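From the methods appendix. Each design record in this collection lists the tokenized structure first, followed by the designed amino acid sequence. Records were kept in a plain field format so they could be parsed without special tools. The example shown here is representative of the layout used throughout.

RECORD:
FOLD TOKENS (389 positions):
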């Protein structure tokens, strides 16, 4: 992984480094059912964004008929969105099709390391977005993208820089897998402990409906309690800090289950600190002092939330009495202690992986512009990473 920055970077066009072409899809899958549901991944714009730059998940597949009117791009293709959320990037980990709202870049291995190019696009994302235009929604055309000029070092240096940043992304991806597998394990633990009965949420939890504090109390200076208005702030497990308030009205305690009471109703998080909750959130506190069991009971009540998505005049919503009446699956009484212990251990592992990823993402995002601008050499960056990866 060792190398040193030579300073001999050249400005080149993207199409000087490999093939640049739009995806092909003459019919959108939802309008032509015979085109999808087969063996070929069909990547859509929403599938491209990935925290570690790897595209591994997809929401649709193509049939043989779909493939016939499209193209199967090889693994290692870099996808670039050119409409809506412009300049999101990711690298295919397996062959896939994608529509013309995505541009594919297949690197010439004698000229470019596709990982380095993907990192370059992350670095240049804002400047690429500034070139977008459109009367209805922003977009950027293929020609503009293909002619995009950016600095590129020797192939050896590309490999070295990609290895440094890739070491961070590898660890992020490994933690993501830990979270995903742990999540499935928690679902299995709960499922095996259920006794087939259900009971109203109010019998198992104390409910606090959120209420927004005065707008004049909001700040971004970390003054007061963190304030969460709704699902916008929800993460994989814990809400992301964005706003604080010095005049909290309704609060949640550490360990409470947070549930969205406005569209999308029923989304959950865990309060990882004491916080203020707004009108879009309710907090649930276990009556039996089994907070992790309650969290997973709420998550398991999938069908209970669907009716409330249509209750509001514009957006779905659920009120206090409706929330308290939601039926939660019940755990066998003789298993309740063991289930809480097991779920707590799993959730602690998830929390550790997510916390480590925050550190890794921060390190990567700080290192990215320094490496891409040549301000930090690869050898220097390796010393920075000692003890991090």
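DESIGN:
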């Amino acid at each position: 992984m060792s190398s040193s920055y030579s300073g001999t970077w050249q400005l080149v066009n993207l199409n000087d480094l490999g093939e640049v072409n739009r995806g092909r899809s003459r019919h959108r899958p939802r309008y032509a059912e015979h085109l999808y549901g087969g063996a070929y991944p069909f990547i859509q714009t929403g599938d491209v964004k990935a925290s570690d730059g790897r595209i591994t998940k997809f929401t649709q597949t193509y049939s043989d008929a779909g493939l016939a009117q499209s193209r199967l791009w090889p693994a290692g293709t870099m996808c670039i969105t050119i409409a809506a959320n412009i300049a999101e990037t990711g690298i295919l980990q397996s062959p896939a099709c994608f529509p013309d709202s995505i541009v594919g870049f297949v690197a010439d291995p004698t000229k470019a390391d596709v990982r380095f190019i993907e990192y370059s696009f992350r670095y240049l994302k804002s400047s690429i977005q500034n070139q977008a235009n459109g009367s209805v929604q922003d977009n950027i055309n293929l020609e503009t993208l293909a002619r995009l000029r950016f600095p590129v070092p020797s192939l050896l240096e590309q490999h070295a820089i990609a290895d440094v940043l890739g070491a961070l992304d590898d660890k992020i991806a490994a933690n993501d897998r830990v979270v995903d597998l742990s999540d499935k394990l928690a679902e299995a633990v709960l499922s095996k402990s259920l006794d087939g009965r259900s009971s109203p949420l109010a019998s198992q939890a104390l409910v606090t409906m959120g209420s927004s504090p005065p707008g004049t109390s909001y700040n971004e200076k970390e003054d007061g309690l963190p304030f969460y208005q709704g699902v916008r702030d929800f993460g994989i497990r814990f809400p992301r800090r964005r706003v604080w308030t010095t005049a909290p009205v309704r609060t949640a305690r550490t360990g409470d289950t947070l549930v969205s009471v406005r569209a999308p109703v029923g989304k959950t998080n865990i309060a990882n600190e004491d916080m203020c909750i707004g009108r879009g959130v309710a907090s649930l506190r276990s009556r039996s002092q089994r907070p992790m069991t309650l969290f997973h009971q709420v998550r398991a009540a999938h069908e209970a939330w669907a009716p409330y998505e249509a209750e509001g005049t514009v957006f779905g919503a659920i009120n206090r009495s409706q929330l308290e009446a939601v039926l939660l699956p019940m755990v066998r009484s003789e298993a309740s202690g063991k289930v809480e212990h097991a779920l707590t251990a799993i959730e602690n592992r998830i929390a550790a992986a997510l916390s480590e990823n925050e550190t890794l993402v921060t390190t990567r995002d700080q290192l990215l512009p320094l490496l891409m601008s040549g301000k930090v050499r690869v050898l220097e960056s390796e010393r920075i990473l000692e003890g991090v990866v």
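APPENDIX NOTE: Confidence is low (pLDDT under 50) at residues 1-6.
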